[in-house]
Design goal:
Blueprint lengths: L1 H20 L5 H13 L2
Helix pairs in contact: 1-2
């Protein structure tokens, strides 16, 4: 459980920081891109 929480936190925070880096208002689009590999499993 702890590993899952750490993984999701890292994923979502990393996605947020990436959206900020690119100055994109479409944070949800970045989340979608990051979640696609997880959804395929």
């Amino acid at each position: 459980m702890d590993t899952a929480v750490q993984t999701l936190f890292t994923l979502f925070y990393g996605t947020y920081l990436t959206a900020q880096l690119y100055a994109s208002p479409d944070i949800a689009g970045f989340y979608e891109t990051q979640l696609q590999p997880l959804e395929k499993r």
